[in-house]
Every structure is written in C-alpha cells, then in structure tokens.
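FW: tagging you since you asked about this chain on Friday. Here's the raw sequence from the shared folder, copied in full. Didn't touch anything.
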Amino acid sequence: MSRDFAFVQTAPDRVFVGWGPFEQLPFRRAERPAFYVSDFFLDDVHPWRHPATWEELSFEELASRFPEQAVPEIEWEAPSLEDFTRLFQSAREAMQRGDFNKIVPVLFENGRFTKRGNWWRYFFDKLVLLPPGLRAYGYSYNQDGMVGATPEVLFEAEAHGYRTMALAGTRAVLHATELLTDPKERREHRLVVDDIVRRLSPFGNIEIGPLGLLRLPHIAHLMTPIFFAENDGNEKMSFAEMVRRLHPTAALGVSPRTPLGERWLREADRGVKRRTFGAPFGTEREDPSALALVAIRNVQWHGDAVRVGSGAGMLPESQLEREFEELRQKRDQVKSLFHLESWATSIARRA
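HL: got it, structure written out here
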C-alpha cells in the first residue's frame, strides 16, 4: 500500500489512523479531525493535515491492511565522537558566557537502504508488542516517512485540564535507581519541571506529581507527572496555543528560554537538520480530544536515506564521553524496539 497516512496511538491497543490525500492548512477545520505535524522550530505555516478518511483500530487490524513482504536491510554509519565534540564545546562555551544553563544537542546516526520492501507491515507487527510507557506514532508521505515510539507526552487534554510531564535524566535500566541520587541528573530534571511550571502557571493551576522512574527497555528516565487546569472563566487554550506554551520544554530545548538559546539551537541545526525530530506530533478530534506527543525515539527516512536521532541534556558539569554514550543508548533503544540492529552491520565512520 503506497497511500499516504498518519497514525498516533491513543490507548494501549488502539491507534487513530488518517488516510490521505491530506489537506494541509494553518488551522484545523472544526468539523474534522486533523494531525498536527510540524518541524522542531514550528516554522511550518501549514502544520494541520486533514485526512480524507479516518478510523480507530487495533495495531493488529492496522498491520493486516499491509501486505507481507521481505524485510528491508539498512547499512548504518555510526556518528563519531568528533561529530559530537564540536557541539559539546560550543554549548559549554555558551554556558560559560552565561547564555543559558542547559541545552540539548542532537546527533543523528545515518544509514541507507541496501534492500527495500514494504516495511510498514513489519513495523506495525513490532508496535503490537510495544511495552508500557511508550506511545507509537508516524506517517508516510510520498518518499518521506517516520515511525516512532516516544516516552514523552507534550500534553493530553482531559475534561478539566491537561496532563503533561517532565522527562529528563537517563541511565541504563540496570542502573535506574542511580538517577534518584545523581546530582547532575536531578538538577537537569528540575530545570524541566520549573520550565513547564513557569510557562503554564500564569494561565491556571499546576499540580506537580511525585518524582519517579520510567523504566523502558534498556534505559530509564526520571519522570514527574504534571496536571494543568486553566483558571475559571478563562477561554480554553487552543491546541496550537498549548504547543507554543510548552514546546520545546527544557527536556528538548534550552533553559532558560532566551534569544541566545534559541540562536544556539538554530545555529546547531545547520549541521544536523532536526526537521521533525523532537517536534510536536499529535492529533485533535471533533470531540475535541487532543494529544500531542514529543517526536523522539523514531526512525526517519527520505527515499533510500534513513536516520535515527537522539538528544542529551547538557549542563556545565556534563562530561563529553558520558553524554556521547547517552546519545548512543537512546539510538540503540530505537533500533532494538524495531529490530533495526539486525538488518545490517554498522560501518565505522571515516574521518
């Protein structure tokens, strides 16, 4: 099936799917559901994609819509420490100048298809087995595509407010409890909580839940649930307004949010091209139920070029090798979830 489509997981075994062709607009038509698909910097002036038809079904049912074909193969080219060192040093110099206290550099591992098939059936079969704590999402449009399983929800609308979260601080899952006592990880996480509270508190009441651990396959994170309810009498914020208030949180962007931090992120993007990585990805329905995910832990492709990205929260006390290893662990989790590591042997990058 070559038809354009987009999907987002709405419950443990439910997925909302929109089938193309899509009508792209700067706003959502009130009478129709639409997908919100933007770039990281929210520069896309037509982020709303209205499907021609839509439905909600299980992953098994969705997988059955696609034919079984040979599994494609990918040849990976691992990023070098030198690639990351330039970003790391630039961020450290900016923090020493006092431009910001935290920033999130991003690195991609690139590859290419050496054998292609219709891999959507393969991906959906894997998403059936997705562990708790992850939400699936993705799209297919012409030669572009993305499939992911993110642990981070930007916001989810409820009857009387919104649920969001602070997700920052990473360890191998076997050492997850170390996160609770590591000063650097705790401080990084607190910056994210404070950033969310600062962005939303002028508009309503904030309830901060207890700090906990989100254990995933291979890695774990510090997580704090947050509930936001708008003040009585205030008009409910639109989906796009909630996106602008929250994105990017300090888990993916910069703390504090300053023009200097924004400039650093955009300058760094010249070399890596985040595109939709880390951007809001979600849907708003006629109900109107609304869900916005943070588009991390994904695989992206354009034609035969494919890549997996990862980001690491950097503070003044961050260590180069430790952050580089965290970036690798996050990419390896994506490869493991979709069994990408078995498709081909990685090749070392040549200087």
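FW: Helices lie at 59-63, 81-96, 120-127, 183-200, 239-246, 259-272, 320-337.
HL: agreed, and Residues 135 and 149 are 5 Å apart (CA to CA).
FW: great, closing this out.
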